[in-house]
Amino acid sequence: WFTFAGNLSGASRTLADNIMQYNWMSLPVDISCVASKVVASQSAQSESLLAGLRAFRDQALKPTANGRRWIQVYYSHSPELAMLLIGDAQARHEALGVIEHFSRLGSSFTHRAELEKLIDANQAVLPNNVSTSIESILGLLEQRSSPELRRELPALRQEIAPLRAISLKDLLYRAERDHLGDKDK
User: Fold this and answer.
1) Residue 23's pLDDT band (boundaries 50, 70, 90)?
2) Quick count: other Cβ atoms within 10 Å of Cβ 53?
3) Which of 17, 33, 122, 179 is 20 to 30 A from 9 (CA-CA)?
4) How far is 71 from 58, CA to CA, in rounded Å?
5) Has this prediction a pTM greater than 0.85?
6) Which of 136, 23, 14, 32 is nearest to 86 (CA)?
7) Rounded Cα gap, residues 109 and 143, in angstroms
8) Higher confidence at residue 26 or residue 111?
9) How wide is the angle at C-alpha 135 spanned by C-alphas 132 and 137, nearest 5°?
10) For residue 26, what pLDDT is reported?
11) Does the pLDDT of residue 92 top 70, yes or no?
12) What backbone phi and psi angles, to 5 degrees, belong to 81?
């Protein structure tokens, strides 16, 4: 760490120091989201962004097996993601747009009036700008991430592809229909 840290300066050193305060292998999930914290630190509303992301995690991802798998993948690779983001200002900017979107969705899941506004506005699950930012970040990961993380990327792309062409209203309808169909199982 000391050799590596000696090569950093300014904002990169500050972000790296924030990451290194974590011993991510032994900490519970809720405090090991270092990549999200690196990105959220660019916003004046970092705490509300993180709260919205946690709501998205808890309301949209945790209820499904695939969602829980992606949560685990994220937390397993969060320190590596954080270091990649520290080294790439453009990727941090792209990631900020992505987390702002999902934070807004997460917040709406806990505030019905906000959710109804998004539904009425025919909000896409993955608007074009968010989809473009995700692709940019995935490109960075394909070039510079560990082999373990790169192995996850094709499955992630497959998982998010259908979300590009669906509205929030339609996705919620499908989720409700699937949930009702699963009650007897």
Assistant:
1) very low
2) 22
3) 33
4) 10
5) no
6) 14
7) 35
8) 111
9) 110
10) 39
11) yes
12) -60, -45
Residues in the chain: 185
Task: From 22, 20, 24, 25, select the one nearest 5 (Cα to Cα).
Answer: 20
Q: For CA atoms 63, 146, 38, 105, give the dihedral sign.
A: negative
Are 31 and 39 spatial neighbours (Cβ–Cβ below 8 Å)? no
Residue 18: per-residue pLDDT: 62
Cβ–Cβ contacts within 10 Å for residue 106, how many?
23
Tokens of 127: 């608007």
Question: For 64, which DSSP code?
Answer: S
Q: Which sign, positive or negative, has the C-alpha torsion 130, 134, 135, 136?
A: positive
pLDDT of residue 28: 42
23 vs 165 pLDDT, higher one: 165
pLDDT tens track for 144-157: 999 999 999 999 99
Tokens of 142: 């394909």
d(CA 72, CA 74): 5
Q: How far apart are CA 91 and CA 170, in angstroms?
A: 30
pLDDT at 129 over 90: yes
Degrees to nearest 5, angle at CA 68 with 46 and 173: 90
